Automatic annotation (TrEMBL):
This is Superoxide dismutase. Residues 1-28 form the signal peptide. The keyword Plastid does not apply. Keywords: Signal.
Length: 305
């Protein structure tokens, strides 16, 4: 027979366990991981390969690699002094980098940090903003000029001698500010999806002709749309200055979509783009509303999908 003290102890333990059962999921749902980037880094793009995340600096073009388990990292490739914005890995140990107002692109060996090849994509005013690899080609957006730049990848991923320019036509109309920004493939892989930051519109792009059609969105406008991530038919669209992610369920052909939910968090400070590993999303805080200085702190926020 248990003593009164034993019964009291067991009752207290049961109450603790019951409380953990009732309240555990809610606490887990709000848990957020963060880890720092170097002071003054001014992050923009992110790409994840294996257990590491890669970040580009819009200040220097440096590429920084962080271990997603520990948050520790280091610069693996020194930049040219011009931006590194959108990033994409290709499964061959290479990182494709959009060069912003330098009007160029680079391909970097992730093991050595060596620049394997550089491409002059534009002369004059340009803003090469983001990149996606679809099939055997890499596509770059230009937020200042209505074009996509395409790198046709040969057998075993062989890099081409030069890029091909695809002029955008049809529904998209460029205006003042940031135009075409984030880019992903459509759910069926037959076209590309591009967000236009200044209008908040999402466009489907024929990668051969450059012809564009507006995607019919229900329940949202993607003003300040920046980085995009597609998982199946779910599109995650970062709205940088709005400090949120719009989660959109797309049709199979990518011609329409509806807002499912919005993800926000108190630690978002103008996140620019997003990458995923497991059940978590990772976003670098670009802090556009903070005047950058050598000692300005930057970090990465991780939230549940």
């Amino acid at each position: 027979m248990r003593s009164a003290i034993q019964k009291t102890a067991l009752s207290a333990l049961a109450a603790v366990l019951l409380g953990a059962t009732l309240h555990g999921p809610a606490q887990a749902a709000t848990r957020t991981d963060t880890f720092p980037l170097p002071n003054g880094f001014q992050p923009e793009g992110i790409a994840i390969a294996g257990g590491h995340a890669y970040f580009g600096s819009r200040a220097t073009g440096d590429i920084y690699r962080a271990d997603l388990r520990t948050g520790r990292g280091r610069v693996i490739s020194k930049g040219p002094g011009t931006p590194s914005l959108g990033l994409e890995t290709d499964g061959r140990g290479r990182l494709f980098v959009a060069g912003g107002n330098a009007g160029d692109a680079r391909v970097i060996d992730l093991r050595t940090g060596k620049v394997l090849k550089s491409y002059r994509l534009a002369t004059g005013t340009s803003f090469v903003n983001d990149v996606i690899i679809v099939g055997r080609a890499a596509y770059f957006t230009d937020s200042s000029n209505p074009v996509l730049y395409k790198l046709d990848l040969g057998r075993r991923g062989r890099l081409p001698a030069k890029a091909v320019k695809i002029r955008l036509r049809g529904a998209i109309k460029y205006g003042e500010g940031i135009n075409a920004n984030g880019i992903v493939a459509s759910p069926d892989g037959r076209s590309l999806l591009v967000v236009q930051s200044n209008t908040g519109k999402l466009f489907e792009v024929n990668p051969r002709s450059g012809f564009t059609e507006e995607v019919r969105l229900r329940g949202t406008n993607l003003t300040n749309g920046d980085g995009l991530l597609l998982e199946g038919r779910t599109l995650y669209a970062v709205q940088n200055r709005d400090n949120r992610i719009a989660v959109i369920r797309l049709s199979r052909d990518g011609e329409s979509g509806r807002l499912v939910k919005r993800i926000t968090h108190r630690e978002f400070d103008v996140p620019t783009t997003v990458a995923a590993r497991g059940h978590r999303l990772y976003l670098p805080n670009a802090r556009f509303s903070t005047t950058p200085a050598p000692d300005t702190k930057y970090d990465v926020v991780s939230v549940k999908r």
